[in-house]
Amino acid sequence: MKKLPQSPRLLFPTVLGLAAFFGLAPIAPAADSAAKPFTILATTQIPAAGGIDYVTADSLNRRVYVACGNVVSLFDLDTYKLAGSLPNASGHGVAIDPENHTGLVSGNPATFFNTKTLEVIKTVPAPGADGYLFDALTHHFFILSHKAPNLLVIDSKDGSIVGTVDAIGPDGGNAAVEQGATDGEGHLYFDVANQHHIAVVDAKTLKVTGFLDLGEKGAGPAGLAIDAKNHILFAMCRGGNGGTPTCVIVSATDGKILATLPLAGSSDGAAFDARTMEAFSSHGNGTMSVIKENSPTEFVLEDTVQTKAGGKTCTLDTKTDHVIVITREAVPPAPGAAPAPAPVAPPAPVAAAPGAGGPQGDAGRGGRGKAGPSGPQLLDVMFIGR
Fold first, then answer.
1. How high is the pLDDT of residue 372?
2. I need a surface site. Which of 110, 126, 251, 380 has the fewest CB within 10 A?
């Protein structure tokens, strides 16, 4: 592992210190986040035609985006209702620049559009497109791929191609990049599922600056979230080849593994709430693990939330602290209708490459191109909170 330089810090008086100096009453701390368990507050369902993969919240403009088949659907974060759609935009999910009101559907081609008018501005060739990341510091969209080039970089203001990043695996060969995170200070982090590590990329130079080893429990990292203030990464690992799904918590500064905690299922996405200091991992078996950061050195598994079977990726509404998880399910039969025939057993899974997921790691993921419920389907958008 290549050690990373620590970023300089600016010191400011604390809010409580200023309050005491001016004789003001201190600001009351937020209510104990563990006082109430997480539950599904609302579920919005619409007909689904095609696969799903990622979900993205634009908390500033109160929208959440889900790509399903060749349509991107928008939901209102306050009313939970369908708020619009972008047709003929096939992809895995949508990266959003909330300030410039632009979005990029991660597909091939990638669709660059105006989020206010939902008008397509241009399309961009993006072979191997899968996940994505938006970096507010540089106003760049990153399209993640499981093959070279591993990162395609696009200007979020005009949709032009800025460059590419390749060879982000220290072991060489193909790097299966799953999810990315940014600290807002110029450091980007990408988990590489088939090489058990996190690659670090300089957001301005677009150069790989180091690798963070996730250790023996870090097989198959699929979800990645960051506590940017304390420079702590939460790698949600599937386990691979029958291993135990595990959250590996690592320092983004020096790569030290701070803790490992069990997950309730095979992760496909992660998020971190800086207000409640909680990390989330969504799983295909219908659970969501909640990890509490009590301090930069103390972490506990706080809650296991029941969602719905096939639950995939998650996103966070930073205004309400709600977590949004998506899945698909079969349309229920009409009253009095004959029951649906029993599903045909799927073929035995093909053995995966070491660390690439395996039967345990991929169970219930249901991504684009993965088998979902047979017959007519519904897209479920679950809004989870306290």
1. 54
2. 251
